[in-house]
Input
Amino acid sequence: MTNTVLPLLRLAAACLDRALCTLSMRIAVVVAIVVAVSSSAHAAAPFEVKVTGTGPDVLMIPGLASSGAVWDDTVGQLCATHRCHVFTLAGFAGVPAQPGPLLDNVDAALAAYIERQHLKAPTVIGHSLGGFVALKLALDHPADVGKLVIVDALPALGAVRMDSLTPQQLHDFAPQMRAQLMAQDPADYAAGQARQIASMATAPADVARVQAWGRESERVAVIAAMTDMLGEDLRPRLAGIKAPTLVMGSWISYKDVSTLEQTRAIYERQYQALAGVRIAMSPAGRHFIMLDDPKWFESTLEAFVQ
Output
């Protein structure tokens, strides 16, 4: 409980003695406690959010170590007719990290945000780790999601090379991966992150921007979120998603080792339990499809959302 609320509670206890407080003073103390608790809960949300536009609501969740600014071009197009809620998650791109499991905390906080803002079954769009969070939200809070758009994310990323891995095996693997990454020399970790990002977008300016977000992200938060995602398998639960779902996939980064059809088959196998899912493969986009293949991305998104 915050330092603001505790003194108010002490004052409220004192006010039980009518000789110390008038009725109006007691009412004022109660109101102050409600405001303080509400403000404290809002401040504790594991994300920052920027709202623009008017119309049907759309939630946009960026990926690992990314800023909500990754959606800027999408906002410019979509938010002429929609109200866009653009998030940046705690620990990423300069937003302070918070204790506890980020994925679960964001899942719960998004549901609370939807309720608090009185949003009516908004469209939820998530990229990469943000797509995984969007899947969790649709599973844990199905009434909160109208339509679901998953941008280059899988329900079991840890099983991408071996479909037969079980949820328990993925769960057991995650702590080992976390320990290995935390044991890395900081310079080696930063260099590896920069190399990985360089393979995820094409334009040098986009690569530099995403790398900057990575440098502004807190290493412990990034590693914890990534290994939590790798250790969780949503495939057995996918049948519980009731929202119409579009999955956008990328393949061009793997063209030297895989055809578009072979890469698409990975998505189809991972999402096979999700009835009615639509899978669309970007012809030219790397992992950051919205940056690499914007015309295809925007037209595919608008056709689904409208």
Observations:
- Confidence is low (pLDDT under 50) at residues 1-9, 24-42.
- The chain has two domains: 5-41, 46-168+199-305.
